[in-house]
Structures are given as C-alpha cells and as structure tokens.
Amino acid sequence: MITIVKATSKGQITIPASWRKRFVTNRYLVEIKNSHLEIKPFDLDKLTEKQEYTVFDAIRDNDGKGIKASDLQKILKKTY
C-alpha cells in the first residue's frame, strides 16, 4: 500500500494508524537509502551488537557526537 503524507513545518510525518497497528512498537528506525527514506519498526530486544545503528540526529541531539545502539539500548531499558 502506498499513501502520500505531508511533513509538518517541523518535519514530522504521520504514519497511518492502520500501519502502526500492524506492529507491536511505537518506535521506528528511519534511514536514508539513496533517494528515499526507509522506515522500519524498531524492536529493542532484537537488536544485536552486529546491527548497531545511530538512531537519533547527533547534530541536533548530542552536539554532533553519535551514540552506539547498544549504549542507547541501556539508556532506554533504564527508562522503561
């Protein structure tokens, strides 16, 4: 299924509710793939050391420094 979504003035888009209900998460990975964006459900429990991703905008969120997914995983587990 394809749908057209419009970004807000802050760059946010809304994933249709029918799509969100298909996944047991409210977190998603967004990746630039050549000329398009790829959005995938983010399952913290399935993340392995070999599959580390930067999951936030380092320039915006961390003074230009990246963070390993394993470090973020520890932080998120403390939050929940």
TrEMBL record:
Record's Gene3D superfamilies? 2.10.260.10
Q: What is this protein called?
A: SpoVT-AbrB domain-containing protein
Organism of derivation: Candidatus Magasanikbacteria bacterium CG1_02_32_51
